[in-house]
């Protein structure tokens, strides 16, 4: 159900009409899942495939939280904190993996 909220709502910008986010995001998530399977089955080296899969998982978590949990409508500072957290977690996992495998 679409609701129109006038711009006169106390201090908030009007809600923008976006594309049919749930369906499109679901298709992108399915595509990223298939890409993960293709990377694993595609003969990539285990180290490279592991890093790519972590990056795909970070992208998927970002899409879920922004679109399904509607963090894209949150205040700017909350969204910045989430984006920073998502990046930090993915980077920590990748760096830990690389250091543990002796790839550095």
Summarize the structure.
This protein is an all-alpha fold and 104 residues long. It has helices spanning 21-41, 46-68, 76-101.
Describe this structure in words.
It contains 3 helices and no strands. The chain has 104 residues and is mainly α. It has one domain (21-101). The longest helix has 26 residues, at 76-101. The N and C termini lie far apart (52 Å).
Beta-strand portion reads under 5%
**Morphology call:** flat
Number of helices: 3
Sheet of most strands:
none
Question: Low-confidence parts, pLDDT < 50 over ≥5 residues?
Answer: none
Record field, number of beta strands: 0
Distance between the first and last residues' Cα:
52 Å
Helix content: 55-70%
Give the mean pLDDT.
Answer: 85
Taking all Cα atoms into account, the compactness measure Rg is 18 Å
Provide the domain count.
1
Q: Helix and strand string, N-terminal first?
A: HHH
Main structural class: mainly alpha
Question: What are its keywords?
Answer:
104 residues; single chain; mainly alpha
Itemize the secondary structure elements and their pairings.
Elements: H1 21-41, H2 46-68, H3 76-101
């Amino acid at each position: 159900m679409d609701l129109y909220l006038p711009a006169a709502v106390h201090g908030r910008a009007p809600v923008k009409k976006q594309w049919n986010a749930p369906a499109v995001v679901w298709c992108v998530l399915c595509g990223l899942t298939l890409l993960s399977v293709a990377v694993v089955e595609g003969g990539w080296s285990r180290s490279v495939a592991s890093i790519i899969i972590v990056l795909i998982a970070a992208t998927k978590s970002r899409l879920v939280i922004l679109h399904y949990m509607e963090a894209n409508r949150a205040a700017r500072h909350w969204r910045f904190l989430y984006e920073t957290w998502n990046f930090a977690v993915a980077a920590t996992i990748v760096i830990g993996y690389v250091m543990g495998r002796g790839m550095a």
